[in-house]
Amino acid sequence: MKFSRLIIQILLVIAVITSIVLSFFIWTNTARYQRGRNIDVTSTQSNKNEVPINQVISATSVIWHDDEDQKLIYNSNDNIALSIQKIMQDWKIDSPKLVSKKDGAYYQKIIQSKDVIQLVYPTSISTSILGYLLNNNSLRNDKSYSFNRILINLKDKKDSNIYLANDNNYAVYKAPVRNATSDPISKLVKKANINLKIRLNIMKHGVFTFYTEPIKLKSYSYVISSKDDGEYTTALFDSNTNGLVTSEDNGVYTYNYGESKRLVSDHNSGELSFEDYTDTSVPKTQLAFLQRGYQKVVNLQNSISNLRLYSANWKDKNLVFREYVEGFPIFKKSEFGSIRIKFSRKGSTEHFLNKVLEVPVPSDQASTKLKSTSDIFKGLEKAGYSPNDVQNIEVGYQWESEADNEKVVDLKPTYYIKIENHWKPYSDWANEVAEDE
């Protein structure tokens, strides 16, 4: 009995020591956060091959106007925009018809309608692209119209239509819908845990979202990943790196494969550019344009779950992608977002950053209080900028690297403002800062 008791005591000691050792490795390894709280998507799965194109190209904001106020809503545990898009895949949406165009007064009335939910895209897409994303042949094969808002009335049972609206030319289209009910969407609205009062205002450079009162937003921290240049050359040069010619100048590395391809990697800023002079076929349709852009994004990054299409310029064949957190865009220390892709008959060009969000980590940072948008404009006027100077304004997250941990980045909410074709935080334009609480 004494011998058995001794064995049991020894085994218990071994178990305790093993537990302590495992806990040490878990808590000192950033990978411990792999199963952390989901921030922007319905799954923390980072396998890029499981992130479909209709997630990367999707609405990023959801606006709900009840009987009283218009609100920007979000659910941290269930992305409302993606959930509504999934619901719409079962709807029978017929060809849209033009209702109004270039009528600012009518347009403002439409986008401020009560009992209406809006899915807002950061850039215009076409109805044929929407048809592809929803697997709807009526939209995909019909005459293509551009829009960046989808409006759905949740209470008027007689209005069996959805409305597509374009901020650029104030066009409004009506598309009849069959086999649809608003009940699942109403349930999603009730589950929103972020409700920010807003008002949509038409200004010189477009429709701006005004936060009508001060707002408080959380800060976040993320583990980031990066690649060695060799991983990019292997992927971008079709694994044939035998003929690469490499040069370096003050931390800027250039890799040339004959006269057909070139990769420039700036180790100081983490920015890279890739030029493929053999890729001279320009997409002939807007759908092909976005499909090829999506494929290039997949080839570049290991994780694209937080990435969204931010801007699509069909005329210039230019695409911009940004990472999003809680429905808000992340602005980094670059002028092009996360990835910029351009197609031309001289070849394609890709600009991107060697820093990608991987998994969220616990953050002890205080929430940030941001002023109302009207007060932001007053601050800009004091600094010498008129409302007409503002080309765009958004609440977003500012990318700040941690000084003591290069693998972790802090994301702090702030207003970002575009003036003279440059995005800068409000503090840079007006020499003011947000308040921490």
UniProtKB/TrEMBL annotation:
Domain of life, per lineage: Bacteria
The entry's keywords: Membrane, Transmembrane, Transmembrane helix
One Pfam family hit: YycH
Keyword Membrane: yes
InterPro entries the UniProt entry points to: YycH (IPR009996)
Regulatory protein YycH domain: residues covered: 10-426
Signal peptide positions (record): none
Transmembrane segments: 6-27
Official protein name in the record: Regulatory protein YycH domain-containing protein
Organism of derivation: Companilactobacillus kimchii DSM 13961 = JCM 10707
